[in-house]
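User: Some background: our group keeps a shared notebook of sequences we're curious about, and every so often someone picks one and asks for a predicted structure to add to the entry. Today it's my turn. The entry only has the sequence so far, pasted here. Could you supply the structure so I can complete it?
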Amino acid sequence: MSADRAADIRSLLAGMGYADFVADPAPPRGRNLIWTGYSTSAGGAPRRLFAKRLTGAVADTAERFSRALHFAEFAGFGDNSLAARTPALVASEEGARLLIYDYRSGPSAFELPVDDELCRECGQLIALLHSRDLTAGISAAPLARPALDEFRALPLRSYLGASGGELAMWRLLQQDTALISAIAALLALEDDAPRVPAHCDLRLDQFRRDEEGLYLTDWEEFRAADPARDVGSLAGDIVYQALCGALSGKAGAGDLGQRLDSAFGRARGHVSAMWESYLASVDVDPTGLAERAGRFAGWHLIDRTLALTQISGRLPAKGKVMLGVGQMLLLSGSEAGARVGLDRSA
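Assistant: Of course. Here's the predicted structure to add to the notebook entry:
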């Protein structure tokens, strides 16, 4: 950690009765500047902390910072069942875009064996979030992705900064008129859907497990949104994790096609377990939810592939597989939910 960044954190903590923040030697990696470490209170008791400084364009970091604060306030309303399932916000500094949380250890759900029981727990946790009443101050701004304009032409800045892999991916996407129509139809369905408190950046690695149980992190995209965004993203990520295992050769015997078919079948079972648990616990309007979520699962796989190509000079084989499955789900229309395992009605 550089001296000025460490000073930002120490100054903020000192004003709250903490001092001498000591960072761990190998901070976690991510799109933001992240450090873990500890500070001692006035009484000398060490407190483990997780510090995050948001990076990016000024307007973007301002919005993400605001959403993270709104979630911390939202989680504290009423009973504390949701607050107990996410790290507590200890301090924040708007000018520095700095957020400091209590540190909670444990592996992410992406690192754990993904089975029906884990997926049921994830479904229950999403249902806990979606069943809460919306409160004042929560943003209802639409999410930036998917952006239909990008399917017509990339902004010049994005084009100039794109890798060879990204450009190869966008060439395929921009020529697929059926896929573009399917995405436009999904966004139209989303416009008419009910709104709930939603995470809106849901992946298996946002769920973590420690000695207190499963908890959920990273609330910078928190807003009022279609519940299908979260359900679909998680379903898509369960499929993504399974297919990654098949492509790496860690998912059983047989040729690649057999491994992929088997992995997708297992993923469907895990998604079904998540969905049943979610439906049993949630209080939302289920009309059309499975279909929209199934389509969003397809978009999640495409979005994952776009992220993958950012560090590649070409479209890798893994990306082609994810793109193909994502296209299949988005083009499945009313059958999209059933295709991915969201096939039990409320």
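Suggested note for the entry: The mean pLDDT is 89. The first helix runs from residue 3 to 14.
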